[in-house]
Automatic annotation (TrEMBL):
Domain of life: Bacteria
PROSITE patterns per the UniProt record, alphabetical: ENDONUCLEASE_III_1 (PS00764)
A single GO molecular function term of this UniProt record: metal ion binding
UniProt cross-references to SUPFAM superfamilies, sorted A to Z: DNA-glycosylase
This protein's name: Endonuclease-3
InterPro entries the record matches: DNA_glycosylase (IPR011257), Endonuclease3_FeS-loop_motif (IPR003651), Endouclease-III_FeS-bd_BS (IPR004035), HhH-GPD_domain (IPR003265), HhH_base_excis_C (IPR023170), HhH_motif (IPR000445)
Claim: Transcription is one of the keywords in the record: no
Cofactor: [4Fe-4S] cluster
Annotated Pfam families: EndIII_4Fe-2S (PF10576), HHH (PF00633), HhH-GPD (PF00730)
A GO BP entry: base-excision repair, AP site formation
Similarity remark: Belongs to the Nth/MutY family.
Length: 217
């Protein structure tokens, strides 16, 4: 494995990509993370969905409801119609209603601030919890989605079968000084360059450090 190259990879990617706070990104521009609750809902709805569709769904939702109490007051049909642009909108309607009930009844209407408590909420998995911990609650953790999982395996940093395994390893081996922004560098490179089909190897700034058997020159 190329674990020995990890720090060098982070150094290169940190020079190539800005962190999200320095970019003109759609999440900030549309206020999807303007409160802890909106961050939680936005990230939960984003699973398996392109950012533009997440923005459409969240804008429609937040025009009518921005608190757990307001979302619960919506009918299921109303909520489903608002979030229809996201994948699995019927399942997410049920999950979101239950999540809101939990926040109200179990956490006094406030988004919980520990990873364990976040993951106790309906529809909240490891990735969502890690994102909230890193961006909202001052934690330093690397969230792993399909882009990050694919990238780290191709680079040879990990040899894993799923995102949870990848998250466990990359959080364990990443030096503390890189943890705060590693997710931001990795997801941009994985989503823009090391894409699933036909990765843009000729544009890759860490090409020389990559151990992907099928990389092209």
């Amino acid at each position: 494995m190329a674990e020995k190259n990890l720090e060098k990879i982070y150094e290169i990617l940190s020079e190539e990509y800005n962190v999200f706070a320095e970019t003109d990104n759609e999440w900030d521009n549309n206020g999807l993370n303007s409160t802890d609750f909106k961050s939680l809902v936005s990230v939960m709805l984003s699973a398996m969905t392109h950012t533009k569709r997440v923005v459409r769904a969240c804008n429609a939702l937040y025009e009518k409801a921005t608190t757990p109490e307001q979302i619960i007051a919506l009918t299921d049909d109303e909520l489903t119609e608002m979030i229809r642009p996201v994948a699995h909108y019927n399942k997410k309607t049920k999950h979101l209603k239950e999540l809101c009930r939990q926040v109200i009844e179990e956490f006094d209407g406030e988004v919980p601030k520990t990873k364990k408590e976040l993951m106790s909420l309906q529809g909240v998995g490891r990735k969502t919890a890690d994102i909230l911990m890193n961006f909202n609650f001052g934690g330093e953790t690397i969230a792993v989605d399909t882009h990050v999982h694919r990238l780290l395996n191709r680079l040879g940093i990990v040899e894993t079968k799923n995102s949870k395994e990848t998250a466990d390893i990359i959080n364990d081996i990443t030096p503390k000084k890189y943890k705060k922004h590693a997710h931001e560098w990795l997801i941009q490179h994985g989503g823009n360059i090391c894409i699933s089909r036909k990765p843009k190897c000729q544009e890759c700034v860490v090409y020389e450090l990559c151990e992907y058997d099928e990389k092209t020159s």
